[in-house]
């Protein structure tokens, strides 16, 4: 943006002289009128007392703050005032008031007692004096000429190239911030069930089949019998391995701490039992339910909030974050809101003891979409 | 320091008022006693009173409920085939005790989600209605106080129940009912009601029966003991002081943002107006001075 | 350049310093003997003028709440442990005792329950953050609506916009630190946003989280960003912002004695030192009162973050509310093509809309100066009504912001007003498009009406409310001329001219220098200039004013004559 620097005042209005364009001349500063405190010693004294009183009140509040700090208990045995935590309220109120009173005192002092003459300061344009500007520009020009950068494109370009390349270390250094995604987003721990693995038993290597992954109650941790559930039941569930890793030949450390969080962030499940006649299984999903019990990922396909606000009467599941709504009777189809894909459904069955198990892992990535997510690779494409 | 209540912060069941506890206990005893009699068909001598109760319940039902739910609780359809009042043949006594006991039934207008309101029937009448509906088919019975009331727990048990219940509550209930039990929105104008301050029995019954659009949490879904743990946690939420000051309805960041703008910014802008306001002027001159 | 001398101080200098001032003088001399401070005050006078107006204090709210943030923040760092190592909570809060959580969450609970005043400091820090950003926003509105962003203050405008952006990021990283359920849900959503970014999305997510979400890195990394990186930049930018305010000197409202070449008001030392210093205590005090009286972010009720748990009413803090609202009302748009997925339902509301709005904000001063062709310095403020199109642009932007913001609370609106969340969403989908357009049109017309009202006041005087009945039965309201000062304030503004792209081609059809592109740009500029200025009411010329005042005077005489002759025995108007 080029600046013209002939400054003309945005409008005239110099005192007394009437610029032809201006309908009214600037009348100039109004006469200074004194405040009551300037002319009346009684009022002045009163204002002085008021200011001092505010400072005094502040001091009282500060003392009360210290008193509250040392007398009011917190921890597992809070003092309370009318149902609220006494310590926080008392400390906040005393600190707040002591600060407010100081502020009020100072401002009252400034408004009533400090000199109150308005003064006038002249402005200067933001730019430098012409001589300085010319000198600086000249210096700049001479300096540039002395580098010879304009005449030596080879140096200029190689210098620019070398400097630009310095971005590489900056980026490369960030590489170890995390692991590469790989196919981590395409699998969940549900896939741990039903595998064949080799273990060492009595010094011999034997192949064992990991049992199919049972579905367990979230937070409670017990596996669920198909017969436990009544029509209308909604269960917030997790793979049993998170509570009982040994049964699935998984090290406890792998389902602990942030590993546990990572598994939960993909494996969380919603289990719903509805009237089998209400259920409209999708193509290829005819055997994914057990007697009207269906299982869906609990992770919203929009941005990944856990989602379990179900309306029993309509089987519509609502996300509390952005209100995407899915029809659990109809393959998790999106019926409302911003989510772009249905909720992934987990094929389930019952094992010999009658416990609900996952037939396999999810057949598509759960959770929010991402760039590499390839619809062609979903093992069961949508029927439309 | 008389304002201070030293024990008020203690998260303990002892903090409930003594009279309230007594009333709950008495009510519980009365109800359970009466209902135990009502639901013990093996005892021949109680069969008569049970029949009596059902008969009384049927009379009440015909007057207050049959218009929507049908003469025999079979439900009523509208002409277009929609459900006007649902069938009550297999809802059980717990459902009736919840719906009528929280004033949701009888409904003021059909169609909308039933709201909590003033209870219309007396406890005895509710017991009779429950008994009648229970006699129509299957369904969960009204729970014993032992099953739901956290007051029946010892201090150590209570603490354990609260911790466990909190985690189950957060896994199963907060999605709809919010972290403080303040309730939340559901699709198409529906809502999950506030559950703070609700009678433990009604919470238990709600989990068991799934009122309105709520899912059921049958005993096979959340075992009875864990339901009790949830109720113990809710009890703690009710009883614990608000450590940080007024809670603004427990609705989360929306109400907090409102306070920041209205109280915080509003107050500060008011101060700014005062700071920059013109001070009063006078035309009087100082004695002797000539300005 | 001739400096104007419209006004000098309007009173006598204060009396001879008294004893207290002498002591102060002695201390100052001692310091100057060693540091040469007086030299430094040559460029930066202690008697620097700061004009009085309440709206000039809005930026100060932001400044002082930032200071509160620094103070309370330092306190919190003494106790907070930004680690995601899993521990079993064993502190004072009974309902969580025995629950597994990160050190970050456990130390947050420790601050809240085992450090006296810790909960107060946490809440003050959080309230101050909300006020910091709120104050920046209304300060920005004030600067825009009064035209204070014009030359030479464009750079400060840009710095201000960057401060708003950084403040928002600072807020987000800050409220995520406790690792509680609510903030964790927000971080999970942020992970979704990153994953939706084209090409590098999943890599960004895995690198930020140190592996797969949630990992054990995000809290320490947010902590470094929150307490070091962004506060450092904020501090530097705030300093630059203030230096520029001092250098440019404050803008002022037009008024008697005030011109483009001076600045009139009380001096910094002592008046504004006291007023600004006092205001710091007031901001601090207000934050402490909020922190003590209102519960904020009760993390103990949310519990530790668990990716399988969620609560109804999961909202971000208010300043993140509007993109969250857009996320709620965006239709389910997702494209999958050539084996990749484009999530418009995330990219549009989060990755495109907020940066775009920021760009628009930054561009506004330059856009306006291009349209108006105005390259002069401006130090006198404009009333919003005197720039109807500018005001209308901001009204449109704010309407968009406000509606998106409301969408961010659609579930709370639904339960509090007993509405259907679906209907609210459908309504807002349309309203965010139509609302701003309506707001633009209405605001612009409204401003122009207010200008007409001002013009009428200037030309015909103000309405006294005195109704006069003439002998022949007609009624008229008596108008009286406004004071000279008031009239001057109304006329102290620029006369605007619509730019017309003349000379793009001359009569013989030879293209003007610059070619077609310049011609099109000129045409666009002409159109926009007409939109900005053509309908505005310009102030009258001296001649017009004189004539109409003469006319009004005549009418007044007429009226007074009627009063004395007619049934109204009010007496002459000189009483008024």
Automatic annotation (TrEMBL), chain B:
Binding site for heme c 2: 173, 176-177
PTM comment text: Binds 2 heme c groups covalently per subunit.
Compartments, record wording: Cell membrane
Superkingdom, natural source: Bacteria
Catalytic function, reaction form: a quinol + 2 Fe(III)-[cytochrome c](out) = a quinone + 2 Fe(II)-[cytochrome c](out) + 2 H(+)(out)
First-tier enzyme category under EC: translocase
Membrane-spanning parts: 258-277
Keywords: Cell membrane, Electron transport, Heme, Iron, Membrane, Metal-binding, Repeat, Respiratory chain, Translocase, Transmembrane, Transmembrane helix, Transport
EC number assigned by the record: 7.1.1.8
Cytochrome c domain residues: 52-137, 160-238
Membrane topology classification: Multi-pass membrane protein
Listed GO CC annotations: plasma membrane
Chain positions recorded as heme c 1 binding sites: 65, 68-69
Keyword Transport found: yes
GO molecular function, one term: heme binding
Signal peptide (residue range): none
Pfam families with a match to the protein in the record: Cytochrom_C, Cytochrome_CBB3
Assembly mode: The cytochrome bc1 complex is composed of a cytochrome b (QcrB), the Rieske iron-sulfur protein (QcrA) and a diheme cytochrome c (QcrC) subunit.
Record protein name field: Cytochrome bc1 complex cytochrome c subunit
From TrEMBL, chain C:
Catalytic activity: a quinol + 2 Fe(III)-[cytochrome c](out) = a quinone + 2 Fe(II)-[cytochrome c](out) + 2 H(+)(out)
EC category: translocase
The keyword Iron is assigned to this record: yes
Species of provenance: Nocardioides silvaticus
Protein name per the record: Cytochrome bc1 complex cytochrome b subunit
Localization terms from the record: Cell membrane
UniProt domain Cytochrome b/b6 N-terminal region profile: residue ranges: 27-254
Annotated PANTHER family: CYTOCHROME B
Keywords: Cell membrane, Electron transport, Heme, Iron, Membrane, Metal-binding, Respiratory chain, Translocase, Transmembrane, Transmembrane helix, Transport
Lineage: Bacteria, Bacillati, Actinomycetota, Actinomycetes, Propionibacteriales
Domain of life: Bacteria
One BP term from GO: respiratory electron transport chain
Entry's EC annotation: 7.1.1.8
Keyword Ligase part of the UniProt annotation: no
